[in-house]
Amino acid sequence: MNATDLIAQYIKLRDYKEKRTKEFEAEMKPYTDAMATIANAGGAMLIAQSGGNEGKANIVTPVGTMYRSRWTAVKIADRDTFMSFIGSNFNDNKKFLTAAVSKKEIEEYIEVNNAVPPGLDVARGYNTLFKRS
């Protein structure tokens, strides 16, 4: 098999997978929508049963259990304000930070300094990608 054949076959398979994924998602949409409607009705039923206490209710039946689980999403809306809060009492507030680093900034540092910043392990690799002509 030559490069032309490899590229053509990869693109053919990728296009087929994308097409079938879209078809599957379209086929499943009524079911997904119905499940969301049922979940909303169930949530209302659970809240009503708990007397308005959103986190306390569950309903157990012979066919299964319905319950609520809390989730939280957090994003920084004002970086300067948040960082001032962290710095105001760093020893206590550092718990709000993670050890994540900016890949872009690390890449730039490595390029400029020809070295990895102290305390980091950096792994690199390559992906083989394909695009249509």
Describe the structure.
The chain has helices at residues 3-49, 79-88, 90-93, 103-113; strands at 58-61, 64-67. The model has no long low-confidence stretch (mean pLDDT 93). Helices cover 54% and strands 6% of the residues. It is mostly helical and 133 residues long. It has four helices and two strands; from the N terminus they run αββααα. It has a two-stranded antiparallel ribbon with strand order 1-2. It is flat.
Mean pLDDT, to the nearest integer, reads 93
Uncertain runs are none
Q: Give the CA-based shape.
A: flat
Order of helices and strands: HEEHHH
Biggest pleated sheet: 2 strands, antiparallel
Euclidean distance between termini CA atoms: 19 Å
Task: Give me the number of helical elements.
Answer: 4
User: How much helicity do the residues have?
Assistant: 40-55%
Spatial arrangement of strands, main beta sheet: 1-2
Estimated share of beta-strand residues: 5-15%
The radius of gyration over CA amounts to 25 Å
What is the compact description of this entry?
The chain has 133 residues and is mainly alpha-helical. Helices cover 54% and strands 6% of the residues.
